[in-house]
Amino acid sequence: MNKRWIKLLLITISCSTIPRTPVNGTYDYRIEFAEFVEGAMTVPCKVQFKDDSVYVINTEDSFLGTKGDIIEAGIFARHKSGKMIIQHNESDIYEEEVRGCSGGPSVIDTVEKIYWMCYNLKN
Hints:
2 helices; globular; seven-stranded mixed β-sheet; alpha+beta
């Protein structure tokens, strides 16, 4: 195989693993909490993408609020780690930690359809 084909193959493989911005619309997601093992405590939600904005919407009355409340909203951006985040200010993309309870930005996993947040911040 010549070098050109190998390069094309590598580009194709790497591009297929890069998270993509979903098409404008509203999607079924689940909320996972950073303090727990994945799947230990989940809550359904809707995530709406509109241009470069993202909205996480509560789908049931719960400790998170009333059905229809916006849990979080911001700019859908790529963090320096490659993860997709909800950005509230320019420095968010450079924060050391994401997805945790350190005060860094929340993560939106568009492949697994998970919104990661901190349980302790809601209680």
